[in-house]
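Hi support team,

I submitted a single chain yesterday and got back a structure, but I'm not sure I'm reading the token output correctly. Could someone confirm the output below corresponds to the sequence I sent? I've pasted both exactly as they appear in my results page.

Thanks,
R.
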Amino acid sequence: MRVASLLILLFPLCAFAQDAERGRVLYQTYCGGCHYERIHDERLRPAVRDLGDLRDMVAQWAPHTKQRVYTLEELEDMVQYLNESHYRFGLPPKKKQ
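Hi R., thanks for writing in. Yes, this is the structure output for that exact sequence:
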């Protein structure tokens, strides 16, 4: 319970230091080997209903990479990248190109 409380307290602090570009590099380097980004488009939408679900999904799958243990900031950077590039929770829709 203490760990969960600590995570809840630390995530807002991480939000100030979010770096979507670093999240993109981390994601492409360590996650892209097992799946490609299109998996986030429609197939996972029912499983990821909000930013909290996205954070849970990233935290759940992060240990399956061959990367060392991620810091909370790195996890949040990947969440920021995925949200900006695919999910758009709390963000305006992407403009069509």
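A quick pointer for reading it: DSSP finds four helices and no strands in the chain. Let us know if anything else looks off.

Best,
Support desk
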